[in-house]
Amino acid sequence: MTAALNSNMAASTSDLSGVEFATSADGLPVARIGDLVLGMITSPSGFAFVASAGAIRRPLADLTRADFIGHDGRVADEAEFRARVAETAGHKRDLAKLHRVQTRMSASTPWGGSQMAVVYAEGVVAHMTSGHGGFHLSTERNAKVHRLLRKDMPWYEEDCEWAIVAIGFPDLFTAYERSMAEKTYRNTWPDVWEKIHGRSLAEGESWVKDRRAFDQRHAADYIVMSAILSDQRPGMTEVVAKIGGGHIRGGAERRFLLASDEYAGRGRFGFVTDLARHAEYDGPSSFIGWRNRGDGS
Where does the record place the DUF7007 domain (predicted)? Predict the structure, then answer.
């Protein structure tokens, strides 16, 4: 609900006014948006991600990797980093126009006592507690939420249900937040989305729907559950795979040796073994839990 950076977005043509770009002392792409400094960091394993440096007044060209903390999502390249910066700048500008009021109020929430509250508008209040948080809607506001998304108890937690509030009252949220709410909506409640919009979500539009299709398609296949680089076979990865990926209670379990390069290219829902190409493995194991099995299986 409060994230300002965690999105996977395509190139943006957002307004970049007020944004300063530079290269850090150690060659990192960096940017400043008001008191927020962002950098594109490359991890030891080779992927790039966005990190922040907070309120640093020094020139961007003087900064180094040591100034940045956190991990605000991966980016493919510098172009996507610049798009992420543009998105964040737009979010901050939109946020300034909304005039949300941060305050303290005595309130009991489903997650404990409220420690901080943000009033978005009359009847729309976000509460933060020691462990969790979410929105409370007044009776009048809750009645305006679409009936297929509305809850009887007008509390909407911050992980996913906040999106219902943003969809119901879009004028109270930034363009970035509305975009994230739509993505959360499709990913979490695809069946409801399809009923309301009168069309089916295509592959790639909903993680939950895509996962459901994957599980159905591979219910009889061995899907990798755990993996470890093989001590005995350089360049190979030893894996333990189960029928249906463990979704089937009591499903059979087997070990395989896979080429590490091939395993590295696994899909977002896991690696599906091909019994025509991947031979079952019953040799010495690199898994601690398998090493003492006398039959090697």
Answer: 105-219
